[in-house]
């Protein structure tokens, strides 16, 4: 809800709904709702864990209830990787992607840069082309039917051997998915690379060689860092070539690194509800939103894995407003910085900034009068 203690609650909710958003931290596999998991399990004849071994999989309702009680990142990941096993065909991947885009569009998302995890699918025999073609189809449909611009970010998984990531990177390069077509000038199929999964445990720089190669090719790079790990994980991610940091809340404890991130205009893709659900903080008010605003750190607000955390992007915006009571102009800064940190061209950025200005001016008098 937005925000429960405000006499202008309805106006704030309308403003935050209409405010043009860019979502940069959303895992498509994290959009698999319990109902969709059970549906695809039956459709594709893929068994879920037995209720006798894991009672959460007794029903849609029991699985939904279990999602509200993750104890850590690794506890969540065990359900996340089980859920994605129901994806089998290109149409499954396409439908999943479009279901996210449709929901996001209804909540004011105009541009979305979405993660996907090929390695885990490929380990269970799903062809690389099946995964990519399905997600690309979902992205194209979103652009065509919803007017949402999209970017695909391929994630490497930290809990798997680095050789697995190297093989995936080689496959993507050989398919021509990471570079523009020199003859047609078409954009790449995959617009960036990232890394996710367990943060504390695997080597901080395990993808250094891949990132060096990708950086030399001008490929956009991001990395999950500073969620459960301390600020040194962020510093290492930057040292191997990341130009964006996913999560990054540990940055607030390192003033010198925070000053560098602000000066270099590095975008953090902050996920407040996820941080609470995974016990990184106890409440939204502990996420360093105010600190980042005060120190000029660019960040966007994102839902991460909304089917698991129970909050899609609008709910995340609303809960931030409820916790911090931000002004209209502060929301404008967040929205405009989200645009500037996006991997899109100048014209699209100019268009989105213009839309943000229109909404801000439309609501300014109502919310500040």
Keyword list:
single chain, 369 residues, alpha/beta, 17 helices, 50% helix, 12% strand
Describe what this molecule looks like in 3D.
50% of the residues lie in helices and 12% in strands. The chain has 369 residues and is of the alpha/beta class. An eight-stranded parallel sheet has the order 1-2-3-4-5-6-7-8.
Oligomer: single chain
Q: In sequence order, what are the helices and strands, one letter per element?
A: HEHHHHEHHEHEHEHEHEHHEHHHH
Task: Specify the helix fraction band.
Answer: 40-55%
Spatial extent as radius of gyration: 20 Å
Number of helices: 17
Share of β-strand residues: 5-15%
Largest pleated sheet: 8 strands, parallel
Detail the poorly predicted runs: none
Mean of the pLDDT scores? 94
Order of strands, main sheet, comes to: 1-2-3-4-5-6-7-8
Class inferred from helices and paired strands: alpha/beta
Distance between the termini: 22 Å
Note the topology:
Elements: H1 9-18, E1 21-27, H2 34-43, H3 60-66, H4 73-83, H5 90-106, E2 109-116, H6 118-123, H7 128-146, E3 149-157, H8 162-174, E4 192-196, H9 208-216, E5 220-225, H10 231-239, E6 244-247, H11 255-263, E7 267-270, H12 272-277, H13 289-294, E8 299-301, H14 306-309, H15 313-324, H16 328-340, H17 346-368
Parallel strand pairs: 1-2, 2-3, 3-4, 4-5, 5-6, 6-7, 7-8
Helix pairs in contact: 1-17, 5-7, 16-17
């Amino acid at each position: 809800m937005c925000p429960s203690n405000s006499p202008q609650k309805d106006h704030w909710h309308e403003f935050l709904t209409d405010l043009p958003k860019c979502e940069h931290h959303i895992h498509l596999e994290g959009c698999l709702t319990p109902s969709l998991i059970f549906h695809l399990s039956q459709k594709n004849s893929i068994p879920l864990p037995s209720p006798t071994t894991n009672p959460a999989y007794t029903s849609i309702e029991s699985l939904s209830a279990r999602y509200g009680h993750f104890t850590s990142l690794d506890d969540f990941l065990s359900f996340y990787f089980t859920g994605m096993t129901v994806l089998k065909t290109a149409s499954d991947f396409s439908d999943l992607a479009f279901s996210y885009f449709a929901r996001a569009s209804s909540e004011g998302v105009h541009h979305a840069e979405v993660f996907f995890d090929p390695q885990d699918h490929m380990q269970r025999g799903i062809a690389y082309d099946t995964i990519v073609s399905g997600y690309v189809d979902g992205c194209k449909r979103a652009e065509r039917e919803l007017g949402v611009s999209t970017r695909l970010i391929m994630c490497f998984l930290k809990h798997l051997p680095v050789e697995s990531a190297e093989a995936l990177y080689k496959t993507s390069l050989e398919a021509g998915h990471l570079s523009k077509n020199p003859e047609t000038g078409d954009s790449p199929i995959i617009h960036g690379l990232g890394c996710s999964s367990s943060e504390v445990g695997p080597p901080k720089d395990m993808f250094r060689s891949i990132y060096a190669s990708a950086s030399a090719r001008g490929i956009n790079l991001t990395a999950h860092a500073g969620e459960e790990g301390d600020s040194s994980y962020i510093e290492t991610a930057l040292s191997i070539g990341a130009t964006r940091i996913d999560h990054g809340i540990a940055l607030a404890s390192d003033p010198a690194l925070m000053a560098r991130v602000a000066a270099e205009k590095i975008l953090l893709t902050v996920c407040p509800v996820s941080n609470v659900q995974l016990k990184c903080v106890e409440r939204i008010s502990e996420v360093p939103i105010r600190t980042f605003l005060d120190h000029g750190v660019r960040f966007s607000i994102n839902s991460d894995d909304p089917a698991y955390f129970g909050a899609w992007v609008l709910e995340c915006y609303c809960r931030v407003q409820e916790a911090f009571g931000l002004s209209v102009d502060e929301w404008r800064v967040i929205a405009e910085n989200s645009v500037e940190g996006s991997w899109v061209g100048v014209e699209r950025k100019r268009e989105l900034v213009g839309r943000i200005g229109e909404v801000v001016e439309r609501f300014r008098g109502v919310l500040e009068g």
